[in-house]
């Protein structure tokens, strides 16, 4: 099967009406030179609280470590604190004064002790990404009646980078919509772990998965160094300066040329001439290129034109691929599910095929992670005759209104709080673009580069069971070790 090219773009504009770049934020107060604050008069005695005594005055942050804004206060030397969570460079603590906050770990850790290096929590990330995938699918399915194809993983990743700069109500809304269940530092570290895992499996899994992120910032506009470090360290996102104010067309061409390079020239002129304006301050791009080869390729000579039943009363002729072999297949809830692996099986395409021609709507109504898990639990390896249409499609979505309607409207207006990117408070998201391309064929290549042809299985005395995807169905691409849904779509109408 298959080549997929995806691009996700988020653009930020300044909320004020001037063209002047934002001034640089004041420098962070170093931990070594804290600003003292008065302790509450009714603070309990240190002897009544069991914990670590701070050796020096220590700054604390209530909402997360090392924020772009000044610290929320300073705990005086000798204050006892109890460690709630040790996250490596920072600890979440509760002080004897009842303060719950983040402090630098070296404030209480002996010199030379790096502390526990918590492993990225991939399970928690996927537990959020996958529900978001189906939430977004259900929205797009209502808004777009035809074929759909997108990458929820790509969108989650790009929005996670945006989330790194969100604060206040904007941060809360994004966390709820995206099902982010970890504090900011842990979330980004875990996303980084997932990126690393996908890249690592890419080398041995029999597929190509290229992920590229880049931030394009207005020349002279100051972005918080901590934000840029998070996007660089966890998401491998480079940062480039362009001039949206004085050289807008050059900036647009620069971004579009980068997109072409990352997608092997499959996506051109993604950003139109009217998309940018003199208030644009940041464009965030995410590009994904995927090419996978079936573990068991189809034989081209067996592909024949056959009816695809769009509805009970409408048919179109499509090229229907065919092979007989061992596949994992299940049957439950009026749905058949088929697992078609790529390469060594690290990635698979799962096809969810309603038994009724008009059954896709009912499947979509109950589409959740739990539904997918129940269907997956019914799969068993068996000899099957498999029929799958050969098809390609391109999808492009403007996701701003969709995401706002899902519960994060504040990100898209002047009231947005992205002070983690720049403390001015003037940034908000102006548009969100996601574009995807998919090609499903016999050999697993986009063009004629791959020539391997699988052989049919041996003849059997009795005809094996049949999986025949000749009417509307849902499909997804999953990274099996982590259960992460990388791509999701539906086929409702194909033309030869």
Could you please describe the fold and organization of this structure?
- By secondary structure, the protein is an alpha+beta fold.
- Helix content is 22%, strand content 33%.
- The protein has helices at residues 122-143, 152-163, 168-178, 184-202, 225-235, 248-262, 360-365, 369-377, 400-405, and strands at residues 3-14, 52-53, 58-60, 73-75, 80-86, 90-95, 100-104, 148-150, 207-218, 237-242, 280-292, 304-311, 314-332, 335-342, 347-354, 380-389, 391-398, 427-440, 466-468, 473-479, 484-491.
- The strands form four sheets. Strands 8, 12, 13, 14, 15, 16, 19, 20 and 21 form a nine-stranded mixed sheet that branches. It has a six-stranded mixed sheet with strand order 10-9-11-1-18-17. A four-stranded antiparallel sheet has the order 2-5-6-7, with no helix packed on it.
- It is globular.
- The model is unreliable at 1-6, 16-49, 112-118 and 444-461 (pLDDT under 50).
């Amino acid at each position: 099967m298959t080549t997929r090219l995806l691009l996700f773009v988020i653009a930020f504009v300044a909320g004020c009406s001037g063209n002047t770049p934002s001034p640089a934020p004041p420098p962070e107060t170093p931990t070594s030179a804290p600003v003292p604050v008065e302790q509450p008069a009714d603070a309990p005695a240190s002897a009544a609280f069991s914990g670590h005594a701070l050796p020096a005055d220590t700054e604390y942050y209530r909402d997360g470590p090392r924020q772009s804004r000044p610290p929320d206060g300073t705990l005086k030397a000798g204050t006892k604190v109890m460690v709630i969570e040790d996250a490596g460079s920072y600890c979440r603590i509760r002080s004897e004064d009842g303060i719950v906050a983040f402090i630098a770990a070296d404030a209480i850790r002996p010199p030379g002790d790096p502390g526990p290096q918590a492993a990225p929590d991939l399970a928690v990330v996927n537990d959020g990404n996958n529900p978001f995938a189906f939430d977004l699918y259900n929205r797009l399915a209502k808004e777009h009646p035809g074929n759909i194809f997108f990458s929820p993983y790509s969108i989650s990743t790009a929005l996670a980078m945006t989330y790194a700069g969100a604060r206040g109500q904007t941060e809360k809304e994004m966390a709820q919509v995206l099902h982010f269940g970890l504090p900011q530092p842990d979330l980004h570290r875990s996303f980084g772990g997932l990126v690393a895992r996908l890249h690592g499996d890419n080398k041995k899994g029999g597929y190509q998965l290229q992920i590229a992120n880049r931030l394009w910032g207005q020349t002279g506009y100051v972005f918080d160094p901590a934000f840029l470090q998070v996007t660089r360290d966890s998401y491998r996102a480079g940062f480039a300066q362009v001039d949206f104010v004085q050289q807008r067309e050059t900036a647009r061409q620069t971004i579009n040329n980068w997109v072409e390079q990352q997608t092997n020239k499959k996506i051109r002129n993604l950003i139109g001439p009217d998309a940018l304006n003199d208030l644009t301050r940041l464009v965030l791009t995410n590009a994904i290129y995927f090419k996978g080869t079936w573990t068991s390729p189809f034989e081209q000579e067996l592909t024949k034109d056959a009816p695809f039943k769009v509805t009970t009363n409408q048919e179109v002729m499509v090229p229907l691929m065919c092979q007989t072999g061992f596949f994992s297949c299940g049957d439950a809830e009026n749905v058949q599910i088929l697992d078609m692996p790529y390469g060594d099986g690290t990635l698979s395409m799962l096809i969810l095929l309603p038994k009724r021609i008009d059954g896709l709507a009912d499947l979509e109504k109950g589409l959740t992670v739990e539904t997918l898990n129940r269907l997956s639990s019914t799969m068993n390896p068996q000899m099957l005759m498999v029929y799958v249409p050969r098809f390609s499609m391109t999808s492009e979505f403007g996701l701003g209104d969709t995401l706002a309607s899902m519960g994060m409207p504040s990100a898209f207006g002047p009231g947005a709080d992205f002070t983690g990117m720049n403390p001015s408070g003037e940034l908000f998201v102006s548009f969100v673009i996601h574009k995807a391309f998919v090609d499903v064929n016999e050999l697993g290549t986009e063009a004629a580069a791959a020539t391997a042809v699988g052989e049919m299985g041996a003849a059997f005395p009795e005809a094996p069971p049949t999986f025949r995807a000749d009417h509307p169905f849902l499909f997804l691409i999953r990274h099996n070790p982590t259960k992460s849904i990388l791509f999701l779509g539906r086929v409702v109408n194909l033309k030869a």
